[in-house]
Amino acid sequence: MEPVSNGEEPASWDELYNINLMPSELFLKFRKEVQGIRVGLNMEFHNAPSNEYQAKLVLKPLTPEWKWKLIYEPIHHDVRILSKKIPVTKFLNLQVGVGHNFQMHATGWKWKLATCLGGDGVSRIRNKTSLGLFPGFGIRFG
Questions:
Q1: DUF7781 domain: which residues (predicted)?
Q2: N or C: which terminal CB in the chain sees fewer CB atoms within 10 Å?
């Protein structure tokens, strides 16, 4: 919004405000269950501040005692094994993982603390609504 320099007031509300309804992030997730394993394709589109695209292939066992899931990112040549989220307290979860980048020939580990409280960008409240369009395809808004 730029101020009017000649001392005149704006003629309409359209000149005062600019509302952008384009989402900054769009996540498409496709899931299929195959012999006790959920196979997923995650496609992530980031609109701001720069246009970026990520694709992930996710393999996750469906048994109740599963502890890990496998993620492969073909664009970045990353393979990761992530643990199930481990409750540390009532509102705090820990997730650990080991990964390898084939392009850089590097192996490393990551850990993440997540909570449902906050709003500081690191931890935020995540309210999600799912909409099933047809069997096997749903959209989740967060």
A1: 12-142
A2: N
